[in-house]
Prior knowledge:
By secondary structure, this protein is mainly α. It has 2 domains: 2-90 and 165-210, 3-Layer(aba) Sandwich (D-Maltodextrin-Binding Protein, domain 2), CATH 3.40.190.10; 93-148, no CATH class. Helices cover 37% and strands 2% of the residues. The protein has 7 helices and 2 strands. A two-stranded parallel ribbon has the order 1-2. The chain is globular and about 55 Å long.
Amino acid sequence: MWKGWGASPWSEDGKTCTMADQPMVDAVTFMHDAIFTKKAMPGPGETVDFFAGDAAMTITQISRASLLPKEKPFAWDLVPLPQGPAGEYALIGQAGIGVMQSGKNAETAAEFVAYMTNPENSAKLSQFFPSARQSLLNAEVLKKTNPLLTEEQIESVVIAGIEKGKVMPGHTGFAQIQQMVRSNLDAVWRPEADVAGTLQKICGQIGPLLAR
Length: 212
């Protein structure tokens, strides 16, 4: 959600923490208020399921569209993420197949990857995962395994989101950084939290890790 405010956890070169910068403070404050003041989002420890009709909105992926109720016990739609103060935004995930050069059967494995990703098999894979190939990134292909969605929904949300979406920032020390950030964010998810102060503390702790 913080992408809607133009926020980022660290600078583009990955060396400087920006979680305490105003865009991130504003984004986290919005989420905090939505939980504790406006009661618009589930709070800590609350579990709700959009697909069971427990929530008005969920942010999810096309792979979960199969969970939508086929008999339509409630009305639903698929729409782009709401705009934030910084405008439109979208998040995309990535997956790839590779071969370890040091493996015992690297040449055979490389041949298998080439087989998996040839035009015919890429078309098969793209039914389940939106393809990076422009020729396969279309509603006609994706609708084969998502029959509940219209071509218009797939075009305006899924394909448009992939075309303009950004990948979640990663880092060489991500596992250690993530653990530190998540444990410290516990202080935010309380009614009287000091959002700015907590984010400043997080930057102080992960700063040395980013600077490595």
